[in-house]
Design a protein that fits this description.
Blueprint: E1 2-3, H1 23-37, E2 61-63, H2 65-70, E3 75-84, E4 90-96, H3 98-110, H4 119-123, E5 131-132, H5 144-156, E6 167-172, E7 196-201, H6 207-218, E8 228-234, H7 237-256, H8 261-266, E9 272-274, H9 277-289, E10 292-298, H10 303-309, E11 328-334, H11 340-361, E12 364-372, H12 382-390, E13 395-402, E14 408-414
Parallel strand pairs: 6-11, 7-8, 8-10, 11-12
Antiparallel strand pairs: 1-5, 2-10, 3-4, 3-9, 12-14, 13-14
Helix pairs in contact: 1-3, 5-6, 6-7, 11-12
Length: 419
């Protein structure tokens, strides 16, 4: 089943008029090439993001940063999304251009790298579909609830407010992700500033994680900082490879382009970043020397996924952090509950993470969930999620409501404190 939500403004990807220099012409050329070269395929029998009859769910899997860096192209094209925060400040978040993703996919097809045919399912996300159930779940698009979540984080949990207290950020932004080559849809769950894990479940373009990453970089040098660990996850490893990791690199490179000479050369062409070996090496070195850890997980939301998450190396999973102050754990999610299947799986994931954080690390854990009040014709809603999770003993408070256009909200979920 495939469909478009038809929400005005639901997809905030830049239109043709917003692209820099020759982006519009290049995108049109690539779309024409794609129509000529890519045949349509049925998705029957393929693995899906959520439990769907006759579709198997993909297993959880870990992906190392070094291996993912080795799979990047020599250059990537990008644009930026300017998010105006509630205090009037603007944060510019870079996103890899979708036409550039198409080019890479077609090049890999021509080179025989997409032998299992899953790339055709991934291309559903590069057209006009919002969702294709069990095949593509919206991971290439930037959704407005992700922007709502960025604004909430800036106001309620900016990294500057963490001081030196350990923290974990578990983020789940944007719908479940696209299905591609060695398809796995995942959930991103882990990050830490002064032992802060940032987990993004179904991260896709990863706008909230990009904002947190940028704000963390702006805090340096931070006294007594231990480690910042981002664990980004998506159902499909190709989404992590094609958009999530490139967007993180772009965020780092744009922030430091005036400070690091090699980056000035890498930005020699407008709207493009050259990913030379020295640029990637400098990126790795920066992460290491500043105590920032990036990890990537793919696969469906399941008990096995949660288990893999807590096997992931990180400050709060390290015995050395046992003597530190209780960490602050944040699970961030946006546009993850648009279907009943997604809502049920995601609610169980949230509950599992909150309980594990509390029992394993005595963490002050919270989940920040952004979504539309109702997904017409699809079956999911923010109110349904709140009802389900409150019935399991979680305390929920509304921290943001949007009434202009499609009604949306952001809620904060916490386990009750013992009396």
């Amino acid at each position: 089943m495939s469909f478009s939500f038809g929400f005005a403004g639901a997809d905030i990807d830049a239109g043709p008029g917003d692209a820099a220099h020759e982006t519009q012409q290049r995108q049109q050329q690539q779309q024409q090439q794609q129509q000529q070269q890519v045949p349509a395929r049925r998705a029957d029998g393929q693995a899906g993001a959520f439990p769907v009859p006759r579709r198997r769910q993909l297993a959880a899997e870990r992906h190392g940063l070094r291996a993912m860096l080795s799979g990047l192209p020599s250059r990537i094209a990008y644009d930026t999304l300017d998010v105006t925060l509630d205090d009037g400040q603007v944060v510019a978040l870079p996103r890899r251009e979708l036409w550039d993703v198409r080019v890479q996919l077609m090049a890999e097809d021509d080179g025989g790298r997409d032998g299992d045919g899953d790339g055709d399912g991934l291309r559903d996300g590069l057209g006009d579909r919002d969702v294709k159930t069990g095949v593509y779940e919206g991971g290439f698009k930037s959704w407005e609830s992700s922007v709502d979540l960025v604004k909430v984080l800036a106001t309620h949990s900016h990294p500057a407010s963490w001081a030196c207290k350990s923290a974990r950020i578990i983020e789940v932004s944007a719908r479940a992700r696209a299905r591609a080559r060695t398809s796995k849809q995942g959930t991103c769950m882990h990050s830490s500033l002064t032992n802060l894990p940032c987990t993004k479940l179904g991260c896709g373009t990863a706008l909230p994680s990009l904002a947190m990453f940028r704000w963390i970089m702006a805090l340096e040098p931070l006294p007594d900082r231990r480690q910042v660990s981002f664990i980004l996850a998506d159902y499909n490893p190709s989404v992590l490879q094609l958009v999530t990791l490139p967007n993180l690199i772009l965020t780092w490179a744009l922030y430091h382009r005036q400070r690091i000479p090699v980056l000035q050369d890498a930005f020699s062409l407008p709207g493009e970043l050259e990913l030379t070996p020295i640029v990637l090496e400098t990126f790795e070195t920066y992460l290491s020397t500043h105590g920032i850890q990036l990890s990537f997980l793919s696969g469906g939301w399941s008990p096995d996924f949660v288990q893999l998450l807590y096997q992931e190396p990180g400050p709060c999973n390290d015995d050395s952090s046992a003597s530190e102050a209780s960490p602050v754990t944040m699970l961030l999610g946006a546009e993850t509950i648009y279907s009943p299947f997604a809502l049920q799986a995601f609610a169980e994931m949230v509950l599992s993470v909150l309980h594990r954080e509390k029992s394993m690390f005595s963490a002050h854990a919270s989940a920040w969930i952004a979504a539309k009040r109702l997904y017409f014709g699809v079956g999911g809603s923010l109110d349904d999620f709140v009802d389900r999770i409150e019935a399991r003993g979680v305390t929920v408070s509304t921290v943001r409501e949007e009434t202009d256009g499609v009604r949306r909200g952001v809620v904060r979920c916490v386990l009750p404190q013992p009396t």
